[in-house]
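P.,

For your records, the input lines for the assembly:
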Amino acid sequence: MALAALKPLVRRHAEIGIFLIAALLVLWFSASSDGRWANFYNLASVLQVTATLGLMSLGVALVIGTGEIDISVGSTFGMGALVYLWLALRVDPALAMLAAVAVGAAIGAFNGLLITRTGTPSLIITLGSLMIFRGIAIALTEGFSFSIPYGDRSGATYWALGGGDLLGINTALVWLVVILVVLTVTLKMTPFGNRLLAVGGSASSAHSRGVRVDRIKLAAFVLSGVLAAFSGTLEAGKLGFADGSMGRLMELQAIASCVLGGCLLAGGRISLIGALVGAFVLSSIQSYLVVMGVKPQWFMLLLGIIVVAAAYGDRRLRNWSVTR
Amino acid sequence: MPDKTPLIQVKNLDLYFGAFHALKNVSVDFHSGELVGLVGDNGAGKTTLIRVLCGIHKPTSGEVWFDGRQVKEFHPKLAIDNGIETIQQSVGLCDNLSIARNFYLGREPVRRIMGIPFLDMGKMRDLSTKVIREFGLRDNVSADDEVERLSGGERQSVKIGRAVEFKNRVVIMDEPTNHLSVREREHVNELALQLKEQGLLVIYITHDIFQVHKLANRIVIMENGEKIEDALTSSMTADQLEEVIRQGGRKVEKREAV
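Structure tokens returned:
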């Protein structure tokens, strides 16, 4: 059987499921939307959403790789956006981006230190920091939004930080591709990547071989915070404004992207490219619902149903791959 | 003959896990060129003691001296850097990584390109392939295969091969012949003797006093977290030592009553 020959490939590459799902959805959406979904303008906007959600998902995937979870990224995203918008006009957009990233790193360090020093589960710590930093964002903005007037958003830095297009596609996508390549190389080809996956595979075994488990976990949380805040910066650069609720529920989409993309929540097995395709699938579904004129109040429900169906399909594929 | 000054010196070591008193006032010396059998029943504290020596557990009180210097900080990294290789019983391999990656975990060889350290996969593959061939893993197992694929015996062989390959000053073996066939067992025991002949300190943990009596020049017996016997194999037979283990608990109670 020709199909049976594919089994080892599917077994080794957990992300194949999401590639297949993405291909099927693209075909379905293109065929059923009368050109409203599959046109350049709409796809460019899907890719912009994929870029910001994808950057966040990459960070979450690294944390999942160590066997932990980070659900604070939605708030970190919002904090990054607000810090960038607040400082970009007052100081300088490049420095504002660095400040936003520094805030993200600080939130990641806050999570990572609490988790590794106290041994408290990351789920509860990052749930707490999700609320803490959302609370700070809401308190800081006092119900208003931070914005940069359109006329002030000129110059190469604004353009590069999500405020402009390259060949018609938002510059955030360039960042995404570059960061994907850097992180993939880091994960597969450096001692740090080897140790990160070892920690997720068996923290006690990694420890017994001399790996500083706590430092690796801390580094993963810091990277996750940095990527979420940077992603918030790019989103703020595109929109030009943000309020305290910026990035709400994005953490759940990021985790869904990772799991759909073949990242094992138990740790040790992640696919960065898979997480990105997961983010692409989620943003495609959202945009399909928009162009098909589905009322926004149904989004959550439909998105949820499609995610569950996709996860189930992926599970079936995985099980099939291990049968004889 | 063993050196005069001990390579590892444990003085009045106590270790608590919460309220559980796992090691009770243990003092013992280990010399280079010795093969010491560490024997005792389940829960006697053998594994706990060597996990202090290899840096996994930090003692609650007491001192550990290595090569004339007191050990202040306990971490496996420091023990490995000091030349202590340990074949652990339940940990040591990450199922999700390849054999080559497990082999070098924590001490990965790198090639720097513009200052950035990249894994030297060629070196990692070559040496680990050589070792798994020497240790008789199935021919269709490659160094790039995940450890998950291996049988219990093959995992044990990888751990032993790694410790022997990186051997430096001390090799600690915790129940090294578990999961192994009769022939593999002989191979491991022979390796232990060779390491000793090369002047290393070998600490060999087992339940089986008869097996280790043939190999070791000294036997340390533990019971309930205490050291209850420390004797040269030339001075006591395996039968006598077995009797000590059998009587162990009772003898200890008597001592406490006095």
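Two observations worth noting. Residues 17-25+35-311 of chain A form a domain with the ABC transporter involved in vitamin B12 uptake, BtuC fold (CATH 1.10.3470). The two ends of chain A are 12 Å apart (CA to CA).

Regards
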